[in-house]
Amino acid sequence: MVTVADHNAEYDPVFGDYVALLKPRVMSLVVFTAFVGLMAAPVSLHPVEAFCAILFIAIGGGASGSLNMWWDADIDAIMRRTKSRPIPSGRISLDAALGLGVALSGLSVLMLGLAANWHAAAWLAFTIFFYAVIYTIWLKRVTPQNIVIGGAAGAFPPLIGWVSATGSVSVEAVLMFALIFMWTPPHFWALALFMRSDYDDADVPMLTVTHGRPATRRHILAYAVLQAALAIGLAFTSIGGVIYLIVALICNVIVLKDAVHIWRRDELASEADNFKVERAFFKFSLLYLFVHFLAILAEALLAPYGLGGWS
User: Are 151 and 45 part of one and the same domain?
Assistant: First the structure.
């Protein structure tokens, strides 16, 4: 476990270790959804301004990741999924992670304000604070609703992208936020079903630990139903259209089918086949979000040619 004594250790980090602190896989999702939010907006930015806006939103997401790894270094050292991260593996110090997170937080907010507008910068600042303080420091180790609350932080990028272009929040921006917000809990609860021992060992009150697997399965189904309703409903807004509706219908039929399968399974069956259905649900959920936002992007790119939307 990482302790204060680790501050006295010798570190020899390389550039890749600092990149790993920024959670590049999570950052890629931040970049893509923020880009879609910006492109779907009814106001266009100059390409240079748009590039800078997405860059600084990405840096803000990376800053959140660094602050998360700084605070969670002790439990990261316990969990199999996270013990190879830069801090628990001894490649980067706690002070370095904290310093990088704070510096990039300030830089990203300031530069987004200058590159786009201060409304977007305020949303980015709130997102970093929400993820690092409200979720990571305060609630992650306190409530089984941690992933529901934490999901809000990951849902802000498309809204920030939209606000970067328009300077204001709209129904469409809120719906893109809501889609990611509803997607996050079942995505991570499916992971928790076949990684439960990690959360037990680290004493993190994930729903599988506090309420058990049957309750988690019921929650996954409930959120999948709400997620499907929201995703399909988004098709009938100004950022939706025929392409998006077809994608949403296909993806959500698959998700609901798998969610029902997960809900109906008993624990003996789950152990017998090593949670194959849960793993499949988790993997498809990664594709689910990407395909939905790709469809929104397609609608936005085709709209000028009269091919997107419902026109």
Answer: yes
CB atoms within 10 A of CB 266: 11
- Cα–Cα dist 192/190, whole Å: 5
Residue 135, in any domain of the structure: yes
* Domains: count for the chain: 2
- Examine the fold and report which residue of 102, 135, 167 is the final residue of a domain before the chain moves on: 167
Domain presence at residue 92: yes
Q: How far apart are CA 158 and CA 162, in angstroms?
A: 6
Measured CA to CA, the distance from residue 41 to residue 30 in angstroms comes to 17
Is 6 a member of any domain? no
Tell me, yes or no, whether 83 and 156 share the same domain. Answer: yes
229 and 252 Cβ atoms separated by less than 8 Å? no
pLDDT tens across 129-141, in order?
Answer: 999 999 999 888 8
The reply to whether 72 and 162 lie within a common domain is yes
- Residue 239 token pair: 């950022």
Angle, CA of 289, 291 and 292, to the nearest 5°: 65
The pLDDT tens digits of the residues spanning 230-256 come to: 999 999 999 999 999 999 999 999 999
**For residues 49 and 282, what is the distance between their CA atoms, to the nearest angstrom?**
35
- Please identify, among 108, 133, 167, the residue that sits at the C-terminal boundary of a domain: 167
pLDDT tens, position by position, 9-57:
567 788 888 999 998 888 898 999 999 999 999 998 999 999 999 999 9
In the predicted structure, residue 273 carries a pLDDT above the cut 70: no
Side-chain-side CA neighbours of 49 within 13 Å: the count stands at 17
- Give 149-199 pLDDT, tens digit per residue: 888 888 999 999 999 999 999 999 999 999 999 999 999 899 888 876 777
Tokens for 6?
């680790």
**pTM for the full predicted model:** 0.91
CA 109/CA 114 separation, integer angstroms: 9
